[in-house]
């Protein structure tokens, strides 16, 4: 069975929100995010379709079209699927394994069975909507098996896969009891994309260790010039799969749409600063509340700087905005408790009634409001233990085209490769975070010109390598690879 869509994106989540009116009627509406915005022009031009789970268990809208003409095609999941496929295998097995075992992954055979089953259902829905010879772009770690399943059921398709999280070293990945199946699943694609060259290298090493008859690496790394874009994107290697197909593997660092963060409302930013009591330095953290993001470590570093007198509570304020995330999982609950305990302790020690030193929000903010915080912040603090890329760092940089501000950035965030002019730190070492924070805070007085140059260089990098370039170069390479 096939449909009539020439371009299909398949992701765990459909970009929709469910809202319930006062009278109880429920309506689904599109919720544009970075990925949707980047892919919308392609989706709209090629009668595109987005396949994904609508985000509510045991409920799904009928397929519907967005205003731009993109078909949103839901894959329903039951509450039991959600538990085993999403919370279990995706987020308690793959997520910690791919983030270098910051917590111990659980290997549960029952979760794996459901993961495989749900991947088959996603592939079956793609089969329904994809036209003969269509291009299908599969997103992220929840759907690692989909390329392989589609290769079997729909050999006519050109299939791309992009991983949004890190790819771990082969020695870690080999722990996974289902490692061969996963590699075989990925090798069903014509092109496999990662954020960084180092993740590509990890994957190639893994293929050479476990793939055996699944695939072999041939030849030297291949450079593919993508015409019409200001950068050269590399297909790091071509692998020959067991069925003789050539599979491209390359690094495509994801980015943001700077246009959505362009013009901040100065009055709103000033109002925020006044509400904080006009501190000399505003530090900012913005993250999903995830144990990979190192939120506690940055609080501990800030606390020690206050305790030693290196920062004065009258001068410095830390604003932490943490989006609720995966709240039913034990490690996420523990992370939240530890963060909130630290916030309480720091304010108890250094705050006054009218002036807390840490302002903590456990909620998501609209982009427009987030942008005001980015503009407001003198120092953005991004300290993940491991992060595929980290878009928050790039969003902050995009809001400081005038050279103001400073970025403290973990060496273990993928963004560190492009944003190497940041104040880099090792989040496993509290002293290293403290040095980076102080370097940024004092830099404004000691070397303002150098600080501005660093921010300007990062701004140029982010604006020249935006999300359109990311999507465009992946799709160009995919077309090449599928030939
Ligand atoms: P995430 O782990 O979610 O993404 P990140 O790249 O920082 O991490 O993206 C988070 C997005 O959510 C940003 O666009 C940010 O603005 C938004 N956000 C975060 N907190 C928010 C809040 N409180 N209110 C509103 N918005 C908030 C995964 C990988 C990353 C990779 C991306 C994209 O883990 O490494 O960069 O996918 O590939």
UniProtKB/TrEMBL annotation:
Family from the record: Belongs to the glycosyltransferase 20 family.
Record-linked SUPFAM superfamilies: UDP-Glycosyltransferase/glycogen phosphorylase
Organism placement in taxonomy: Bacteria, Bacillati, Actinomycetota, Actinomycetes, Mycobacteriales
InterPro entries membership: Glyco_trans_20
Protein name in the entry: alpha,alpha-trehalose-phosphate synthase (ADP-forming)
Record GO terms (molecular function): alpha,alpha-trehalose-phosphate synthase (UDP-forming) activity
Record has Secreted as a keyword: no
Swiss-Prot/TrEMBL catalytic activity: ADP-alpha-D-glucose + D-glucose 6-phosphate = alpha,alpha-trehalose 6-phosphate + ADP + H(+); CDP-alpha-D-glucose + D-glucose 6-phosphate = alpha,alpha-trehalose 6-phosphate + CDP + H(+); GDP-alpha-D-glucose + D-glucose 6-phosphate = alpha,alpha-trehalose 6-phosphate + GDP + H(+); TDP-alpha-D-glucose + D-glucose 6-phosphate = 5-methyl-UDP + alpha,alpha-trehalose 6-phosphate + H(+)
Keywords annotated in UniProt: Glycosyltransferase, Transferase
Record-listed E.C. numbers: 2.4.1.347
CDD domains in UniProt: GT20_TPS (cd03788)
